[in-house]
Specification:
Belongs to the ATP12 family. This is ATP synthase mitochondrial F1 complex assembly factor 2. Pfam families: ATP12. It is found in: Mitochondrion inner membrane. It comes from Oreochromis niloticus (Nile tilapia). By secondary structure, the chain is of the alpha+beta class. It has a single domain, classed as ATP12-like fold. 58% of the residues lie in helices and 7% in strands. Strands 2, 3, 4 and 5 form a four-stranded antiparallel β-sheet that branches. It has a two-stranded antiparallel ribbon with strand order 1-6. α9 crosses α10. The chain is globular.
């Protein structure tokens, strides 16, 4: 099953460092938003398990609820925890059932995404979420290129260019890449086309997509994965391409590298699954359950 597939995945060069520092000035307000969400989602890091059984039930309004023994799950904001379909309810219930003696909330990515969609702690509209997502085009991971060393230049070209070519053809847009610290100049027509596409997502799906974008630091890689052009493993590796190059060249602390990689895969996979399970398309939902 696709649910099982996603659930199981669950020294940079000086020029690149300078680019990163420069890009920070462009996204300080956006970072404040994500810091707020991070604090919200990590408000309780761990807690002793207080329930035996986990089940789901459907309310009169057609929404699905999560039951911990006889208690109905609620959000951090005090709202009744409800999700729009059975597949997502099962996935969330599985997260709660998989917890052992101690509840590790930081591993429950689907629950966190549902809480964020239900409580909307930053009180943003759908339009504001779309605008925030499009802002990533200005600092997209695969749009920034180095001009040395030669090995990394070639690696970026060989691995990133095909993804850029795919998204430009898929969405009829022009994005390009640049070795300038200012990054590529994104045409307004590109932003308009992608904005129209993002408007087809509902609020819940945008919540998941935005989460994926923040993990990969790339709207290009995120859309590539959501559209199933890239696997989770491919998208994560491409988002870490420069780091992986430096590690192969200079070595790394193996356990730390592996931990970071698996954590990023888990978060990214959860976000992608969330987008698919909250899609308005009943055909997509049915296919996800059958895969």
């Amino acid at each position: 099953m696709l649910i099982g597939k996603y659930a199981c995945i669950a020294n940079s060069c000086l020029m690149r460092t300078f680019q990163t520092q420069t890009s920070r000035s462009k996204v300080c307000l956006r970072n404040q938003h994500y810091e707020c969400v991070a604090r919200y989602s990590a408000a309780t890091a761990e807690r002793k398990r207080f329930y035996q059984d986990v089940s789901i039930s459907q309310s009169e309004g057609g929404l699905y609820e999560i039951n911990l023994d006889q208690r109905k799950l609620k959000t951090p904001g005090g709202k009744l925890f409800t999700v729009p379909n059975e597949a997502l309810a099962i996935a969330v219930a599985t997260e709660w059932d998989a917890q052992r003696d101690t509840l590790k909330f930081y591993t429950m990515h689907l629950t966190t995404l549902c809480n964020t969609a239900l409580d909307n702690p930053t009180q943003r509209s759908k339009e504001q979420m779309i605008t925030a997502a499009l802002k990533f085009l200005e600092t997209d991971t695969i749009c920034y290129r180095v001009d040395e060393p030669h090995g990394l230049v070639e690696l970026q070209k060989n691995e990133w260019d095909p993804v850029l070519q795919w998204i430009e053809k898929r969405y009829n847009v022009a994005i390009g890449s640049s070795a300038s610290i200012l990054g590529p100049e994104i045409p307004e027509a590109t932003k308009d086309n992608l904005r129209q596409h993002l408007k087809s997502y509902n609020f819940w799906s945008l919540t998941g997509l935005e989460y994926v974008i923040t993990q990969l630091k790339s709207i290009v890689l995120s859309l590539g994965m959501i559209d199933r052009h890239l696997s989770v493993e491919q998208a994560v590796l491409l988002s870490r391409l420069e780091e992986e190059y430096q590690i192969r060249r200079w070595g790394n602390v193996e356990w730390a590298h592996d931990y970071d990689m698996y954590e990023l895969r888990a978060r990214t996979a959860a976000g992608a699954l969330f987008v698919h399970l909250t899609s308005e398309s009943s055909t997509v939902k049915h296919k996800l359950l059958q895969d």
